[in-house]
Design a protein that fits this description.
Layout: H1 2-33, E1 36-43, E2 49-54, E3 58-63, E4 69-76, E5 79-86, E6 89-96, H2 100-104, E7 113-118, E8 122-132, E9 135-137, E10 142-152, E11 155-157, E12 160-161, E13 164-171, E14 174-181, E15 183-190, E16 193-210, E17 213-229, E18 232-249, E19 252-257, E20 261-268, E21 271-275, E22 279-285, E23 290-291, E24 299-307, E25 310-314
């Protein structure tokens, strides 16, 4: 028994020594590989579309002051970017060549970035993907469509779009400002959605699991919003046809907003606010007060809440 104990102790000590050696090697290699360098890719070939696939870098589109197209990458030795033009598209792809232990012992908080400098002009389709990083586009650009897919990171779009703006995130805030589009689709699991000063010819479709939805100065044909846990607030929002707003846990607020027909539903929360035109109200609350104008003209306004009050006025 004593011999077995000594053997186990010896094995344990050897394992600790080997582990310490690997830890030291990992820390040394990680420190070296975390050094940031700047690489500039000057692009001379013409293209219309942009396709960006990143792992950990923040992405930003900026106006080129000298009119030249370039991609400036602040990157690491083993996490770098390949930049090329192929099939009428600017392609940027982030490559991660780190060993598994270098990823485990990655204690650097320095952000890697990719900045795309373009002349202020109209471009084709922008497709941007990122695992962990922010995405920002400037107002001076026009695209045919924008499609963004982010796992963890914020998205801010300030560009006009001819067709569709589509954003999907797992964790992160989505903000679209001062833009025109034909249609808009936004889906996020955990994060706030905020739309400001938009003109969307078709439909705005927003789906959130946990997070608030806020629309300010927005015009559209139809708007459909749903969040499981979060508030929905509309300020100066006008649609030609319908507004649908639904939340399980949260309040729904209309401020100087209107549509031909409205449909709002809250399980645990209030439905309140001010509309601009008369409506035929169909309002019910199982455990709260209901106060709506008495009107026999206008479109249908259907309001439902389980545990909350309903208070709507006409401006």
């Amino acid at each position: 028994m004593k011999i077995l104990t000594k053997i186990l102790i010896a094995v344990g000590i050897i394992a600790l020594i080997v582990g310490a050696i690997f830890l030291t090697i990992g820390l040394i290699n990680t420190k070296k590989s975390n050094v940031l360098t700047t690489k500039t890719h000057e692009m001379s070939e013409s293209f219309s579309n942009l396709n960006v696939d990143l792992i950990m870098s923040d992405l930003e589109f900026k106006v080129s002051e000298d009119g030249d197209i370039k991609v400036v990458c602040v990157e690491k030795e083993k996490v770098y970017n390949e930049v090329s033009v192929s099939d009428n598209a600017l392609i940027i792809k982030e490559i991660d060549t780190r060993k598994f232990y270098e990823k485990i012992f990655n204690f650097s908080f320095k952000r890697t970035t990719v900045t795309v400098y373009l002349p202020a002009a109209t471009y084709g389709n922008l497709i941007a993907k990122s695992t962990t990083g922010k995405i920002l586009s400037a107002k001076e650009f026009n695209f045919n469509s924008i499609s963004v897919d982010v796992t963890t990171g914020n998205v801010e779009i300030n560009s006009n779009v001819t067709d569709l703006i589509q954003v999907e995130t797992t964790t992160g805030k989505v903000e679209v400002n001062n833009a025109n589009a034909k249609n808009m689709q936004i889906e996020t699991t955990t994060g706030k959605v905020k739309l400001n000063h938009l003109n969307v010819l078709g439909k705005i479709d927003i789906e959130v699991t946990t997070g608030n939805v806020e629309l300010n100065d927005v015009k559209s044909k139809n708007i459909e919003m749903a969040t499981t846990t979060g508030n929905i607030k509309l300020t100066n929002v006008i649609t030609e046809e319908n507004i649908t707003a639904e939340t399980t846990t949260g309040h729904i607020t209309f401020e100087n907003s209107d549509a031909q027909t409205l449909n709002a539903k809250a399980t645990t929360g209030n439905i309140t606010g001010t509309l601009l035109t008369n409506k035929i109200f169909d309002a019910e609350s199982e455990a709260g007060t209901v106060s709506v104008p008495q009107s026999s003209e206008g479109g249908l306004c259907k309001l439902r809440t389980t545990a909350g009050k309903i208070n709507i006025t006409i401006k």
